[in-house]
Amino acid sequence: MARIAGINLPKEKRLEAALTTITGIGRSLSKKILKRINLDLDLKVKDLTEDQENTLRTEITRIKVEGDMRREIQMNIKRMQDIGSYKGFRHKKRLPVRGQRTKTNARTKRGKKITMGSGKRKEEKK
Q1: What CA–CA distance (Å, rounded) separates 10 from 18?
Q2: Could you give phi then psi for residue 124, rounded to 5 degrees?
Q3: By Cβ atoms counted within 10 A, which residue in 4, 38, 84, 98 is the most buried?
Q4: How far apart are CA 99 and CA 26, in angstroms?
Q5: Are residues 14 and 41 in the same domain?
Q6: Residues 54, 86: one domain?
Q7: Domain count, the chain
Q8: Are 54 and 22 members of one domain?
Q9: Among the three residues 36, 60, 84, which one is the final residue of a domain in this structure?
Q10: Helix (H) or strand (E) run with residue 109 in it
């Protein structure tokens, strides 16, 4: 089992797809990494040799991944909140940050739907 950047890569997946389980590495970056170290994209993780695994590990150490990536993102959010930017304010209130509408959507952020009345009183029946 290949363990890279503190993550166990799935054995049965192709190397290109398995690298995406590491936070900070997407599909395009995994292709670039594999092209740089001359590894086949279709190679399965279980078929990696020790030497190939080590070269892959050293290549990934050059990139900011996992804990470092998460820490940087959290620091960016905290900086926005500290300077009082609009995006920081939205993060603080746990609302959508990128301009999405919230009047009708954003249920995952706003919680369970609460039905409001129409505002006028019901007439009594005689």
Answers
A1: 6
A2: -80, 140
A3: 4
A4: 25
A5: yes
A6: no
A7: 2
A8: yes
A9: 60
A10: helix 107-110
Q: Pick from 32, 18, 17: which is nearest to 63 by CA?
A: 32
Report helix, strand or coil for 55. Answer: helix
Within this chain, do residues 81 and 52 fall inside the same structural domain, yes or no? no
Looking at every residue in the chain, the average pLDDT score rounds to 89
Residues 54, 73, single domain; the answer is no
The C-alpha torsion from 2 through 8 and 12 to 13, rounded to 10°, is: -100
Query: Does residue 79 sit within a domain?
Result: yes
Contact at 8 Å (CB) between 38 and 59? no
- The backbone torsions φ and ψ at residue 4, rounded to the nearest 5 degrees and listed phi first, read -125, 130
Same domain, 49 and 10: yes
State whether 56 and 92 are in the same domain.
no
Judging by beta carbons within 10 Å of its beta carbon (0-12, 13-18, 19+), is residue 55 exposed, middle or buried?
middle
- 8-state DSSP, 63: S
| Residues 52-95 pLDDT 10s | 999 999 999 998 888 899 999 999 999 999 999 999 999 999 99
Instruction: In whole angstroms, give the CA distance from residue 99 to residue 7.
Output: 34
